[in-house]
Amino acid sequence: MTSKASVRAAIQASRASMTDEQRQAQRAAIRDRVLDTCAELALPPGYRVAAYQPLRTEPGSMELLAALWHAGYQVLVPSTLADRDLDWVSWAPDAHFSARLGVDAVGSAALVLVPAFAVDRVGHRLGRGGGSYDRALARVARGTPVAALLYDGELLDDVPVDDWDRPVSAAVQPSGWTAVGTG
Ligand SMILES: Nc1nc2c(c(=O)[nH]1)N(C=O)[C@@H](CNc1ccc(C(=O)N[C@@H](CCC(=O)O)C(=O)O)cc1)CN2
Ligand SMILES: Nc1ncnc2c1ncn2[C@@H]1O[C@H](COP(=O)(O)OP(=O)(O)OP(=O)(O)O)[C@@H](O)[C@H]1O
Questions:
Q1: CATH, domain 4-124+138-161+172-178, list 3.40.50.1820, 3.40.50.620, 3.40.50.11270, 3.40.50.10420
Q2: Distance from Cα 182 to the centre of ligand 1, integer Å
Q3: Distance from the CA of 20 to the center of ligand 2, in angstroms?
Q4: Which atom of ligand 2 approaches the CA of 125 most closely?
Q5: Cα 84 to Cα 181: distance, rounded to the nearest angstrom
Q6: pLDDT, position 51
Q7: CA distance 22 to 153
Q8: What ligand is nearest to the CA atom of residue 80?
Q9: What is the pLDDT of residues 114-163, one digit of tens each?
Q10: Residue among 154, 64, 145 nearest 116 (CA)
Q11: What would the pLDDT profile of 162-181 be if each residue is shown by its tens digit?
């Protein structure tokens, strides 16, 4: 049996072993692929895109948030509540404080970008284990694209899953956007 914890640990180790240059190159490519996707979806400026501020080795970037903001989108990022549910705040390059928009704000996003350690072909997503996104994704409007950002090699054949896991509809990697599950 492959436990969630062992897959998390393996991917965390693999991310930690990347050089700064490798991470930087893949993060830049992922940023470009996300912007390609916004153009392909014909997502108009002013629409909301939910994203996240990356932890140390995650495949998001502040440059991605800035690029979305400069393209005219309202960028929402999560703020973790005491019970690990997610509140949302509006992000801007030079803003340090921002009003909390509430846990349901993610439901107004036209595109949702989520952190993950891995995703599989049917859309199962392996996160950090707090269940934060399982709760948040339950509030996303039906049909809204939900894309996990992943480095190369993190789109797996099979990810361990529990009843409460919420699927994603795509993975964005340096090589591009891959629809998964029914997405
Ligand atoms: N960038 C990002 N934001 C996110 C999440 C995430 O996975 N990534 N979350 C997803 O649910 C929520 C926060 N959940 C978290 C759960 C655990 C740890 C954690 O264990 N942090 C380690 C450092 C990890 C690292 O640097 O790689 C620590 O504090 O020691 C952090 C956030 C909401 N915001
Ligand atoms: N809707 C929910 N309300 C409260 N707790 C939940 C909910 N969904 C899942 N959980 C709890 O969250 C915990 C972690 O779940 P899991 O390991 O699937 O997290 P994850 O999806 O990998 O993490 P994250 O979404 O934070 O990145 C489980 O103990 C589960 O019971």
A1: 3.40.50.10420
A2: 27
A3: 30
A4: 21
A5: 26
A6: 98
A7: 13
A8: 1
A9: 999 999 999 999 999 999 999 999 999 999 999 999 999 999 999 999 99
A10: 154
A11: 999 999 999 999 999 999 99
User: Quick one: DSSP state of residue 100?
Assistant: B
User: Could you give the CA distance from residue 36 to residue 40 in angstroms, rounded to a whole number?
Assistant: 6
**In angstroms, what is the span from residue 139 Cα to ligand 2's centroid?**
14
Report ipTM (2 d.p.).
Answer: 0.90
| Whole-angstrom distance, CA of residue 29 vs CA of residue 101 | 30
Residue nearest to atom 28 of ligand 1 (CA): 55
What are the E-state strand segments in 40-166?
48-50, 74-80, 86-91, 109-115, 118-120, 125-126, 146-149, 155-156
Say how many Å lie between the CA of residue 85 and the centre of ligand 2: 9
**What is the number of alpha carbons within 13 Å of residue 76 lying toward its C-beta?**
28
Cα–Cα dist 177/33, whole Å = 7
Of the residues 84, 91, 128, which should be mutated to test ligand 1's pocket, given the most ligand atoms within 8 Å of the CB? 128
pLDDT tens profile 73-98: 999 999 999 999 999 999 999 887 77
DSSP label at residue 29 = H
Which ligand 1 atom is at minimum distance from the Cα of 80? 33
